[in-house]
Structures are given as structure tokens and as C-alpha cells.
Write a structure and sequence with these properties.
The protein has 209 residues and is of the alpha/beta class. It has a single domain, classed as Maf protein. It has seven helices and seven strands, in the order βαβαββαββαβααα. Strands 1, 2, 3, 4, 5, 6 and 7 form a seven-stranded mixed sheet that branches. A hairpin with a 4-residue loop joins strand 5 and strand 6.
């Protein structure tokens, strides 16, 4: 496949994912996938995010068979004291964002992203799961209140944006930084390059935006 001839579709409304692909010099359309994102009872975390990415990609690919479709799903996972795992997606309101930040502060957590790249006409599909460990330092109630007042937490998995104000509270990151932002770009670009959709020469175009 050729980057000049192949249409790339991002099956996500995330501005962070759009920005990352634009920086890489890629031209693409944005068509968010409208699917049910409810976990199955007892579904394992990795199985859930993989299924979400695959179903989003398949949904858009079924309507655009000649295009290469990139879909992804990101969640935040906190291990509780009893060993159980708690999943944090995007908070629906400030109260839920406050709960997430209160639970995550002072603790390590995992950011798990699954992505899927597919082309129906070429019978091509590849996907990966990337995990990154993040620790947010201990926060005061005033810091949480002030951060919530910015509005930034409301469309971010886990209630914080590492690439924005939330990054001021991150003590360390172990693994892919771009994965925490929403898309593990080293892995995604390696797969797009293998497919012939991306090459290093496109970086010059991305640097001009």
C-alpha cells in the first residue's frame, strides 16, 4: 500500500490522537466509531481493551473497505489493596473526576491502550496492547479542587491529562509516554510503516503544522 493512494481513517474523536498523527505528518479522516463500550461480565482488562479497539476498527472498516482504519481504546487501571483491579475511563462529571483523582493520587497505576489497524479489502489486521506505569504524587484537596476547576480532567481517562496541567502532578512514568497521552506512537508508526502508510519523510510535513 502507498501513503499517497491509501486513505487513512482515525476511528476516534480524541484530539490527542489527532495531534499525534498530525505531528507524524499523516493525512487522515476522523470518523469516530459509535459502539457499545460496556465490559462483559468478568471480562479481563486486556481482553476488554483489545475487543474495544477491534470492534471500533471493524465498525468503520465495514463502511470503508478500501481504507486503512486505526482505532484505539485507553483505560486507567488501579490495583486495590485487596488485589482487585479498578478500571477508570473518562469521568462523566466533576464528582467522578474527583473520585478518580482521589484514588489515583499517591499511587502507581497502569495506563493500558489497545490499538487495531485494519483494512478490509486487503484482509489485513494488526493490533497491540501497550502498558505504561504512572505515579501521581500525593495531592491536597485544594490541588484537586483547582485542577477540576480548569475543566481538563473531564475528557481524560483517569481524570488527568499528562500532556497538560495534569502532567505537573506526575511523579514518574515507566514506559511509553505517548501511550499515556492516548496512542503509543512508536508502535503505531512501526505498524503503519510496515503497511506502507507512513515513512520518515512525512516528518517534515508534520513539523510544519
Amino acid at each position: 500500500m502507498s501513503s499517497e493512494k491509501t486513505r487513512l481513517i482515525l476511528a476516534s474523536a480524541s484530539p490527542r490522537r489527532r495531534s499525534a498523527l498530525t505531528v507524524a505528518g499523516l493525512f487522515f479522516d476522523v470518523l469516530p466509531a459509535d459502539i457499545d463500550e460496556t465490559p462483559f461480565p468478568g471480562e479481563e482488562i486486556e481482553a476488554f481493551v483489545r475487543r474495544m479497539a477491534e470492534e471500533k476498527a471493524a465498525y468503520i472498516s465495514s463502511m470503508h473497505e478500501d481504507a486503512v482504519v486505526l482505532a484505539a481504546d485507553t483505560i486507567v487501571v488501579l490495583q486495590n489493596e485487596d488485589g482487585s483491579e479498578q478500571i477508570f475511563g473518562k469521568p462523566e462529571n466533576p464528582e467522578e473526576a474527583r473520585m478518580m483523582l482521589s484514588r489515583l493520587q499517591g499511587c502507581e497505576h497502569l495506563v493500558v491502550t489497545a490499538y487495531c489497524i485494519t483494512c478490509a479489502r486487503a484482509s489485513y489486521s494488526v493490533g497491540r496492547i501497550v502498558e505504561t506505569t504512572v505515579k501521581i504524587r500525593a495531592l491536597t484537596e485544594n490541588e484537586i479542587d483547582s485542577y477540576l476547576a480548569t475543566g481538563e480532567p473531564l475528557d481524560k481517562a483517569g481524570g488527568y491529562g499528562i500532556q497538560g496541567i495534569g502532567g505537573l502532578f506526575v511523579e514518574y512514568v515507566n514506559g511509553s509516554y505517548t501511550n499515556v497521552v492516548g496512542l503509543p506512537m512508536a508502535e503505531v508508526l512501526a505498524d503503519l510503516q510496515e503497511l506502507g502508510v507512513w515513512h520518515a519523510g512525512l516528518l517534515e510535513a508534520g513539523s510544519q503544522d
